[in-house]
Structure formats: C-alpha cells, structure tokens
C-alpha cells in the first residue's frame, strides 16, 4: 500500500502520500473528520448504581448521574453496576453489570421526529424502550451484538450478548 | 487514485471487521410487551433473511454460525433473569397540563391543587429534564398573550426550582395564542387554551 504513490513525480508525490494517508485514516478518526459539527448531547445518565465509565476520544471518564452522553461514546459498566440512560428521542436504555455499549450513531430531528439510532452491545446485557426514532421508519433504530443485527420496530426488549 | 483510496479503505474496514468479530456464542434478544399495552416487533437481520419476533416474551438466540433459535419464554422467568436491567430503566417520559385563570398568571383552583403531586413526582425523577410550554387563549393582543404564556410557564418553573429541580434542566417555550388546544375565533376566552404543557423525562 505504501509503495503505490512512488510512481508519481516527486513534486506531486508528497501531497499524494499525505492525501492517501489521510483518506485511509479518516474512518479511524471520525471525530477529527466531523470536527465542524457542534458537540451535541444525545442522552443523559439518569440512573447509576456502582462504578461505570464512558470512553470518549480515547479517554476514560467516570460516569455520573446527569452527565451528557455524545455520539461515539462507549458506556462501560463494572462488576455489579447498572446504568440507565434517557435519549433525546425519549428512548430509554439500561445496561446491566459488565456491559459495554457503543452509541455508533444518533441523529434526531426534533421537528419531524425522524432520525437514526445505531448502537452496539459488545458485552453484557441491555434493556430498551425504543423512542421516536424507532417509530419514524422501519429499522431507523438498530442494535448490534457480536453475532446479531437487530432492527427495532417500536418496542421494548432485552438484549443479552453471549449469556 | 480514487480507486486506490477506496481499495485501501476497504482493506482497513476488512481488518477492523476481523478484529471486531470477537468469539461469542448465543447472543439473545427477547421481545417484551409495551408498558402502555400492545407489543412491537424486533427483526433479527441476517444477510439473506430476517427473523421477526412479534409475540411478547419470544426470544431469538443466534449462534456463531448464524443460525437462529426462536422460543417462547415465561414472563416471570424473563422478569427475574433481567430484573437488574429492567429496574435500571429510567422512568418513562410524562406530559401534564395545568390550566389558568382568564388573563392571569395563576392556575385555576383545580390546577393549583393538582400541581402539588404532579410537580413533586417530576422533582423526584432522577436527573430530570423538563420542558414547559406556555399558552394563552385568543382573547387580547398577541404581544400581551406572548408575555402571559411566558409568565404562566414561569409560575411552574418557580415551583419546580423550589422543589429542588435545577433551572438549567428546565427549558421554556412561550407560544402565546398561536397554538391553541381548541381552535376558536380571535377574542374567545377558551379555558382549555389557557394552559402550560409540562413534559418531563
């Protein structure tokens, strides 16, 4: 891969290498690529029992009641901890102990009530009461686990990643 | 060049996908009845087919090879097995209405009585977020009604703050006479339009 731009003339080679590296790295650093977008609250930590953390921009912060969560955050609960989240579209999500949930994507239009909500439960258990996004369109809300992809059609459910 | 970038991106995506596919067996989803009655649906989506769960307490388990095993579970078993997760769910969002005296920032006697328990319930909600939407009837000037609807919402806000709700968690909209609950000609003092909508979550 690194040898490909070598055939270009030298004066064009460097910008091309830079462009190629940026293009390849861009998907790995979505936050940097999306930098002009304002940082928007997508959910609020409503209930918290025991220690839990949020991974954001490569840092790990302790979770606190009332804290705002953002798109691309990963919420991680400890042994014996639970967390309850209230999303902007009125979806409710709780995590059981030893769980790990990534908010891949959350976009909600307060006027049309449309949007997209993608989350990944890579470990543990979650309970969900879906909100306005799930009602807006079929499979507007999706939940991934290590082996499953779930389309949520306006409903309440629990997910267990590897019981 | 663009093709090259795309190929490189696809390769990176492939490697990332490989990393993400950690070994795990038997991920499970269980459909619950909606608290408000009825039941929704969950689709277990695979490349070439999807399995739809539509009955309460049905479960789909997926093994690593992608085969889906559906079964009917007992409500009590599900409720006890997932008791911690279900009890950690935040309370459901609610909407209340308080009604006001004609051309007045004060609620009617009935709404003043109702306000106590309603506002206490809201203040008890964990990390509550409140939206207050003030309205007026169509009697009086637009500008006057804008102010009046704001004053009504502020009456509710003051009481919520007195009960310990942070002012930072209360949003206010003043709609004046523009969004009546009951459509009337201009100048009509319709009681059901003199209201504050309280949305708490």
Structural description of this entry:
The complex is a heterodimer of chains A (163) and B (201). By secondary structure, chain A is α+β, with helices and mostly antiparallel strands. Chain A folds into 2 domains: 1-35, no CATH class; 38-161, Sandwich (Jelly Rolls). Helix content of chain A is 15%, strand content 45%. Chain A has 3 helices and 12 strands; from the N terminus they run H-H-E-E-E-E-E-E-E-E-E-H-E-E-E. In chain A, strands 1, 2, 3, 4, 5, 6, 7, 8, 9, 10, 11 and 12 form a 12-stranded mixed β-sheet that branches. The longest helix of chain A has 16 residues, at 10-25. Residues 1-10 and 27-35 of chain A have low confidence and may be disordered. By secondary structure, chain B is an alpha+beta fold. Chain B has 2 domains: 24-88, no CATH class; 94-200, 60s Ribosomal Protein L30, Chain: A, CATH 3.30.1330. Chain B contains 5 helices and 9 strands. At the A-B interface, helix 1, strand 1, strand 6, strand 7 and strand 9 of A face helix 1, strand 1, strand 2 and helix 3 of B.
Brief write-up:
The complex is a heterodimer of chains A (163) and B (201). With 163 residues, chain A is an alpha+beta fold.
Shape of chain A: globular
**SS field, number of helical segments of chain B:** 5
Instruction: Kindly state the number of beta strands of chain B.
Output: 9
Kindly estimate the percentage of residues of chain B that lie in beta strands according to DSSP: 15-25%
Strand count, sense and barrel status of the largest sheet of chain A are: 12 strands, mixed
Q: In the residues of chain A, how many domains can be counted?
A: 2
> What characteristic shape of chain B results from the CA principal axes?
elongated
What is the mean pLDDT of chain B? 88
Put simply, the count of helices of chain A is: 3
Approximately how much beta-strand content do the residues of chain A carry? over 45%
Helix-strand string of chain B: HEEEEEHHEHEHEE
- Which superfamily, in CATH terms, is the homologous superfamily of the largest domain in chain B? OmpA-like domain
